[in-house]
Structures are given as structure tokens and as C-alpha cells.
Amino acid sequence: MTNAAAGDEVLLRPAPFLSSVMQIEPQWIDYNGHLNMAYYNVMFDRAIDELWLRLGIGPGYMKERQGSTFTAECHVRYLREIHLGDPVQVSILLVGADEKRLHTFEQLRHASEGWLSATSENMSVHIDMAARRTAPFPPDIRARIEAVANAHAGVARPEGIGRKIAMPSK
Length: 170
What we know:
By secondary structure, this protein is an alpha+beta fold. The protein has helices at about 10, 35-55, 60-65, 140-150, and strands spanning about 15-20, 20-25, 65-80, 85-95, 100-110, 115-130, 135.
């Protein structure tokens, strides 16, 4: 397996996966003086890449087994501004999984103060890169994903999972 065994004990805890602490890059600050909305997605994507690597579906998996994931759907909520110099960390909850899909909920927090800045709920699909079509995960990968999903099933669900965009009711 592609470096997936390292860190299994962390993945199998009933707690969200925590990314590395990241720093805001100066070119990501927009004319409003805060982090541009596009770069929240960059940080969420970097964090998910860390989890995928631990699950065995990172770059090595793509190279060796011609499998990858694509994002099928994403819902980002921007809750509090992030500024240059703010350290951030992303927690990722594997909300659900099946033979082809991964449902994740990510929270971007200020790494030292702990407040919530943004959330991202995503549906990713497994892709057979040779055919460029959705395909089931291989059994060994599916077992790893299922073990993490089972561990995360015991975690309290954060506010915002499953939210829809709509105008407030009057």
C-alpha cells in the first residue's frame, strides 16, 4: 500500500482528522484586506490531500493503480474573515462513504485561537483514470475508508452538515 499504514492509529480515532497548520500567503489577500474566497478552497484541498495520502489514495495511488478522486460537489460557508499572518488548520470528518463516493465535512479554524472561519462540505467520487469514469474503490482501499468512516460515525455532527442555500423564510 502507498504509505497508508503510517498514522493508522490517528485515522481510527473517533475524532476528525487534523491537517497540518497552514499559513496564509500574501498574494491570497484581496482588495478587501482579507483572504480571497478562492484560497479557502486551496486550503481545504491541501488538507484533503493530507487525508487522502493517509487513506492510501494520494499521488502514489494515482501513479501505481491509476485511481484518483474528483470533487463532484462542494458547499463552502465563509463565517469569519482570515487575514495575512493568521495560522489555520482544517479538521475533516468523513461523514459517509460507499463503494464510489466520499462525503466529507471540513472546518477551517484559526490554529492558535480556535475560532471557526469557514466550512466546506464535499462529495468526492472515485475515478478509474484509465477510463476517466467513476469506479468502485479497490477492496483494500474500501476497507480503510470504511474503518475511518466507522470511527468518525461516533463524532458529534457539526452544525452546517447538509445545509442548503436558500433565502431566509419570512
